[in-house]
Amino acid sequence: MAEKRRPYRRHTAATWAAACLALLLAVLTGCGGPDREVADRTAVQQVLDARAAAVRDHDEGAFLASVDPAADGFRDRQREMFANLRGVPLADWRYRLVRTGAFPLPDAAGSGPRVAAEVRLRYRLAGYDTAPVTTIQYLTLTRRDGHWRITSDTDGALNGKRTARQLWDQGRVRLVRGERSLVLGTGQPAARLRELARRTDAAVPAVADAWPGRWSRKVVVEAPDSVRRMAELLGSSDDSAYTGIAAVTTGEAGTSNRAPADRVIVNPQAYGELSSLGRVIVLTHETAHVATRAVTTAATPLWLSEGFADWIAYRTARRTPRAAAPELTRAVAAGRLPERLPTAADFTFDAGADRLNRAYEGAWLACRLIADTWGESRLTSFYRAMATAPKGAQGLDRTLRKELHLSTAEFTAKWRMYVNQELG
């Protein structure tokens, strides 16, 4: 049988013209394959490097050169942000392109080639940060006339890719330098910022006395002008979760065994409603988190990290257990002695105010029990030992046995007796 032959395809002039046109369009639209992608990534990183250098050099013109002139509203906000940074003592400021294709790009008729970039910003405050603050930005860049420019930092928000906001995104930053603190505020009276610096200065030696060892002994406090702005700095769109919270400490660099650049973020409404003693306790508590962050890991139970910070805060406050733990006192009086140590779920905002308060109070009494029974040095030793423990119940049980010679069940029973004794 004769072999079948494939039909011969004639390549006409029209066919070759169509192929050449397709190739030309691919080049012009940036669809030139891996080499084009690598070249675009390199060009985008160069834009980011020039933008970072402009911030470090306080060069507004060079900074705005990284922004698309056609993006009027975004360009205006970027100009304001750059002005808000004026006076902030920056030791370093750098961007790194993490990846492109980070989020779906919205339709934009008539625009040039675009990339959806995930970018890591790292910066340090001179004289305060021993490690950089690291935040994520989601940027849209467009290529016009052969140059990449930033056109938006909000296009990824609909897909959960929100650019992290900093204080200078919210308004002009005012600074107050304390002996051991730096307070940055927007829309706050100078007297409030000075008061925050004074109380934080006093908190640092109080914490250092209870927590010997290496830490920076310097604290950066951020004071936004509303609870909504506080939530924004913490990456949340739900300000109701922070309504009753006077302050929060966040380790933005975030690695477990490296001292990060923490920020104490103050809620102006809740902080303003506190008594003088309440303000001392809050700022000492948050400063304790700054001091212990380097040895606070995923293995550290929340009852220990929060209870230890409260133990330091109340250590010299001369308050009775009943005065310091009113919610738990009421529960004990009603015959509702807690059955277990507070869990992570007890410390969430979803738990409700009463349960959340009981969790903090129970955690404080657990740490107070250790200090009263085994000594303060044993409490700090136990805290440090948890940093290298396996995560979970097994790690806690092993460390309790090693440091206190009790199992978790035995320690819990002793804690319940102590709570009943102190509050009953």
What is this entry, summarized?
With 424 residues, this protein is an alpha+beta fold. It is built from 15 helices and nine strands. It has three domains: 30-164, Nuclear Transport Factor 2, Chain: A (Roll), CATH 3.10.450.50; 166-291, 2-Layer Sandwich (Zincin-like); 296-424, no CATH class.
In words, what does this structure look like?
The chain is built from 15 helices and nine strands. Strand 5 (174-177) and strand 6 (181-185) form a beta hairpin. It has three domains: 30-164, Nuclear Transport Factor 2, Chain: A (Roll), CATH 3.10.450.50; 166-291, Zincin-like, CATH 3.30.2010; 296-424, no CATH class. The relative contact order is 0.07. The chain has helices spanning 13-28, 34-57, 60-64, 72-85, 190-210, 227-233, 268-272, 276-292, 302-314, 321-324, 326-333, 353-374, 376-386, 393-404, 408-423; strands spanning 90-100, 114-125, 133-144, 147-152, 174-177, 181-185, 219-223, 247-251, 262-266. This is Lipoprotein.
Q: CATH fold name of the largest domain, please?
A: Nuclear Transport Factor 2, Chain: A
State Rg. 28 Å
Which percent band covers the strand fraction? 15-25%
Number of strands: 9
Query: What topology, given as strand order, has the largest sheet?
Result: 5-6-7-9-8
Helix vs. strand class: alpha+beta
> Which oligomerization state do the chains in this entry correspond to?
single chain
Protein name: Lipoprotein
Signal peptide: 1-32
Keywords: Signal
Organism: Streptomyces ochraceiscleroticus
